[in-house]
Design a protein that fits this description.
346 residues, alpha+beta, 4-stranded antiparallel beta sheet, 3-stranded mixed beta sheet, 12 helices, 10 strands, elongated
C-alpha cells in the first residue's frame, strides 16, 4: 500500500504525535512536503515516519509475538568492513546497528510480527537493505547541513530530548522513560542523535524556507463532478440565487459545502496549478468560469486578496516542502556506493 509521509528522521515523534494536520483546501498539491514510500514502520499514528519500508511481513494473531525481536537479531550476522559510502564517508556496522535495532523493534511492535515464521525471517535481508538506505539518508542530511554551516546546538538537542521525554511519559503508555527506550530499541545516545537529526531538519527548512509574509487570496468554491452540473450552477448564480444555498446543494467538497465553500486564506503552492492560477488571477468580488482539476469542476469566487502572514500550519507545510526540495537535491548530488546488499545474501 502506498502512503505519503513526511521525510523526518525520528521515532519519538511517532510515539507521541497525534494525527497530522490536514490541509483545509480541497485541492492541495499532491507533492507538497511529502515523499512517496511503501508502508512505513511506525509505533503510533502520526504525520512523520522513519523512512524504513516494511516488506511483506506476515502478522500473527497473538498480541505478544511468539518470536520477538531477539529471534530476528539472532538471525542477523554483523558485517565487517564498509557497508556503504556517501561522498567518501564510510558507513560501518557501528553506524548501522542502532538504526537496525530501532527499526526491528518498531516493525515488530507495530505489526505484531512473529519472527519464528520462516517467511518473515526470509524477508530480513530486504528489510536490512531498507534500513541501510535510511542510514544513507541520515548521512546525506548531516553532510548537507554541515556543508552549509547549519548546526544543531547542544541546547536545542537537549531541549528536544526533554520535550519528547515529557510527551512520552504524559502519554501514559510507558511506566518510565527507560521502558520506552527498551521497547523502542533505543539507547539514550542514539535517541539524542535522532533528536539532533530532527533539529537539523528544522534548521535546514528555516534556512531554505520562504518568507513568512506572502500574497494570499481568501476564496470559496463550489465543486461539482461534471461540466453540465457546473454550467447549471453558474446559470443559477447569474439568476441571482444565493451562493451559500447552491454550495450546500451542489458542492461535493464535504469539508466546506455547508460553510459556503469557504477555503479561507491561502498562499501560492497550496492548490493544484489550475485552481491556483484561476484564484490568483481573479479580483475580489469576482467569480471564475468552470475550472477543471483532477477533483472535478470548480466555480471559484475570490473574497479578498493581499499580502499577509501565512498561518502556522501553512507555513510549516511550506517549510517542509522547502526541506524536501533541498533534500532531494542533496540526494541526487551525493556520490553513494552500496557495498553490501543483505537481500541477496539471505
Amino acid at each position: 500500500m502506498k502512503v505519503k509521509v513526511l521525510l523526518l528522521f525520528t521515532l519519538a515523534v511517532l510515539v507521541v504525535a497525534g494525527c497530522g494536520p490536514q490541509m483545509a483546501t480541497p485541492t492541495p498539491r499532491a507533492d507538497t512536503g511529502t515523499v512517496s514510500v511503501e508502508e512505513t514502520a511506525t509505533v503510533a499514528p502520526g504525520d512523520t515516519a522513519t523512512p524504513v519500508t516494511v516488506p511483506d511481513i506476515a502478522s500473527t494473531a497473538p498480541i505478544t509475538p511468539t518470536g520477538g525481536v531477539e529471534v530476528a537479531l539472532a538471525a542477523i550476522e554483523p558485517v565487517d568492513g564498509v557497508l556503504a559510502t556517501v561522498n567518501g564517508q564510510d558507513i560501518t556496522w557501528s553506524d548501522y546497528e542502532p538504526e537496525l535495532n530501532q527499526a526491528l523493534h518498531s516493525v515488530t511492535l507495530q505489526y505484531m510480527v512473529d519472527w519464528n515464521q520462516a517467511e518473515n525471517i526470509d524477508m530480513l535481508g530486504t528489510f536490512q537493505d531498507q534500513v541501510l538506505q535510511t542510514v544513507i539518508e541520515r548521512t546525506v542530511l548531516r553532510q548537507g547541513a554541515a556543508e552549509e554551516g547549519i548546526e544543531a546546538s547542544q541546547e536545542a538537542i537537549e531541549a528536544r530530548v526533554e520535550e519528547q521525554k515529557t510527551a512520552v511519559l504524559d502519554s501514559g503508555q510507558f511506566d518510565s522513560w527507560e521502558q520506552f527506550l527498551e521497547e523502542a530499541g533505543l539507547s539514550e545516545d542514539y535517541f539524542a542523535r535522532l533528536m539532533e537529526d530532527t533539529v537539523l531538519l528544522e534548521e535546514v527548512g528555516k534556512a531554505h524556507g520562504p518568507a513568512r509574509e506572502a500574497e494570499q487570496v481568501h476564496a470559496r468554491h463550489i465543486l461539482v463532478a461534471d461540466e453540465e452540473t457546473g454550467q447549471q450552477v453558474i446559470a443559477r448564480l447569474d439568476e441571482g440565487e444565493e451562493w451559500a444555498a447552491l454550495a450546500a446543494e451542489f458542492s461535493q467538497d464535504e469539508g466546506n459545502k455547508d460553510s459556503e465553500g469557504d477555503l479561507g486564506w491561502f498562499p501560492r503552492g497550496r492548490m493544484t496549478p489550475a485552481f491556483e492560477e484561476a484564484a490568483f488571477s481573479l479580483e475580489p468580488g469576482t467569480t471564475s468560469d468552470l475550472i477543471q482539476t483532477d477533483f472535478g469542476y470548480h466555480i471559484i469566487q475570490v473574497l479578498e486578496k493581499g499580502m499577509r502572514d501565512v498561518d502556522d500550519q501553512t507555513y510549516q507545510s511550506m517549510m517542509t516542502q522547502a526541506f524536501q526540495t533541498w533534500f532531494d537535491e542533496q540526494k541526487s548530488a551525493a556520490e553513494t556506493t552500496v557495498e553490501v546488499t543483505f537481500g541477496s545474501a539471505q
